[in-house]
């Protein structure tokens, strides 16, 4: 029975119908389900820690390592580029060899990347570390998100996802305060060590609490789809990221953007003909899925632009110290925690998901609009 201690068996059916192979550390604990949920939430929350720490550390690190604007832009974005490009492959790999295994391996790869960047002596070493982080985070974040439904009853998912978003915002809060203070006290390497500590904690928690599970139906690995999707996303997003430094008319930018789009079309064509496609294109025939995807993409772009770019701009253009920027950015994170808890509670109580999406995306759009039209004299007060 779910929730009761098990003395011999280590395998239990999860809410999604897959077998959960519990680790010895929690198999006999009544709280194993809650522990697994929180371990997955902690893994997902790294997406709120790592980019924030990097954005706080990068202005100081770029000066110390002699980065020009182009190299700094690459150091800022490469982890996100590789993370996005690798999500599909990580998901397909988790279905085959085990989602817990991919999550744990991905987390330790993330730790390795954070260490490489922390002790980097050149800009190339720093960027290499960020690239390794992107590879690891693809496994960590992708599997953490997918693990939550495997250990949560369907009726409890809104609340658990609300906790996940709130905890991610809390992770951002810790990253903002911690990295700001550490950079001011001991320099950028000490500030970056916060990522190392958090990643090690997530890895140990995952090994302790998360059960192993695989897809109920084994499929052939979709190499073509995974490679095409990764290449398309990597090219397209890199091209967009370079528009700020090189402009929209630069040949490399245009080649990357249109090359990425062309590979995306080829990916769709291949996946439609693949019997064991890693990406179910049929889901986009459902209007609700399309609408939710568009909303998530818009929200992700808005949050990423506001959170990462503002912290760097306030240090480089505004001249504020890391500790001051961490204080300025607090309202954005605090209200992120409140919003995540409120929206999760609203959906759990039966409030329309459509209404919640409209309200949240509308508020985010309003905030970005305020930032667009703000005067420099008021930037310190309103930018967060």
Write the layout of secondary structure elements.
Layout lengths: L10 E3 L5 E3 L10 H33 L4 H29 L1 H20 L4 H28 L6 H30 L1 H22 L13 H24 L4 H22 L14 H30 L5 H7 L1 H19 L4 H20 L6 H4 L2
In brief, what are we looking at here?
With 384 residues, this protein is an all-alpha fold.
Output the keywords.
384 residues, Growth Hormone, Chain: A, 75% helix, 2 domains, mainly alpha, two-stranded antiparallel ribbon
- Order of strands side by side in the largest beta sheet? 1-2
Q: Could you tell me the CATH topology label of the largest domain.
A: Growth Hormone, Chain: A
Distance between the termini: 48 Å
Would you tell me the overall average pLDDT? 80
Categorize the overall geometry.
globular
Q: What's the β-strand tally? A: 2
Number of helices: 13
The total tally of domains equals: 2
Could you state the CATH homologous superfamily of the largest domain? MFS general substrate transporter like domains
**Uncertain parts:** 4-8, 377-384
Instruction: Specify the structural class.
Output: mainly alpha
Please tell me how large the radius of gyration is. Answer: 21 Å
Strand content: under 5%
CATH class of the largest domain: Mainly Alpha
Please give the CATH architecture of the largest domain. Up-down Bundle
What percent of the residues sit in helical stretches (DSSP H or I)? over 70%
Topology as H/E string? Answer: EEHHHHHHHHHHHHH
